[in-house]
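Case study 2.
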Amino acid sequence: QKHRRKREEGQQQPQAPSSNKHNKRHRSSFLKDRQTDKEHTMIKAVLIFNNHGKPRLSKFYEYFAVDEQQQIIRECFSLVSKRSDHACNFLEGGARWGKHTKLIYRHYATLFFVFCVDSSESELGILDLIQVFVETLDKCFENVCELDLIFHMDRVHFILNEIVMGGMVLETNINEILESIETQNKLERAENPLTSIKSVFNK
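Prediction:
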């Protein structure tokens, strides 16, 4: 029986390294899949700038150094601002991104809303997404203007994060977005009692 146990233990021992190899292969394939997903990000950046090219919001979903981000913003402004009001609302991404990226934009009063997206994305779908973003801002700020973006940057980023996260679209229903924003506002009021006091005096 002792000899038999030794034989069984000797047969079981070599199986452990093969499972480790399998785990390593599985992990490496998983990391490769994650890397390919990052390379094919749906939305690469969301930019808002005024008629003079001053950036009011810049959210990049791919890593760029600060200098590169500034170059991209300047290039996007030069491409978009030169276009006629009668031209279509999308064009190629310029020298930095090339033909594999499209700039899809809407121009509202003094602000340009620009979504830099993968070339395979639907232009009409992204235009609708920009409209959702702008309408949500309008309802949160009661007719949003450039000053709202300057003085309430944290709220604007929060609203954008409810719509787009990591370059992927999370929500397009305005009512759902507004509900989550209202929930966040209630949490902030509960954590800060001074805001409730101010609301009483404002009444």
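The two ends are 89 Å apart (CA to CA).
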